[in-house]
Write a structure and sequence with these properties.
The chain contains four helices and no strands. The chain has about 120 residues and is mainly alpha-helical.
């Protein structure tokens, strides 16, 4: 990891912590604000530690883009939780052979940038 990449990642990490510290729910309920703050901190720690061992510049860049996208989406919708994803047409094909591979490819292509770190369930 280059020095500039390291600086960018650390500044994003600190930015997420500052956001969590000042996060307010639109409803104004303090218990909800505290719950969402804890979620933001837990999610940041989990994802940053999960990606700590990355050395490939391209994958680091994708993770930085994902983090920035999630920050912007969280501010826009005032909701720190990931937005739901929807299956593309033909995303529920039969579970055999070629159609299964095509189904998996469609799901991978339909996954938004802000959910690249999450496993499929």
């Amino acid at each position: 990891m280059t020095a500039s990449t390291r600086r960018t990642v650390l500044s994003l990490y600190m930015r997420v912590f500052r956001i969590a510290r000042s996060w307010q729910v639109q409803s104004g309920v303090t218990s909800d604000s505290e719950t969402e703050r804890k979620y933001i901190l837990q999610e940041a720690c989990t994802l940053f530690r999960q990606n700590q061992q990355l050395t490939d510049q391209e994958s680091i860049k994708r993770c930085i883009e994902e983090c920035e996208a999630r920050i912007e989406i969280g501010f826009h919708y005032r909701n720190p939780y990931p937005r739901p994803t929807y299956l593309p047409p033909m995303g529920l094909a039969t579970q055999k052979g070629r159609k299964l591979k095509a189904q998996q490819r469609l799901r991978k292509q339909a996954k938004p940038v802000y959910l690249q770190s999450h496993d499929e369930t």
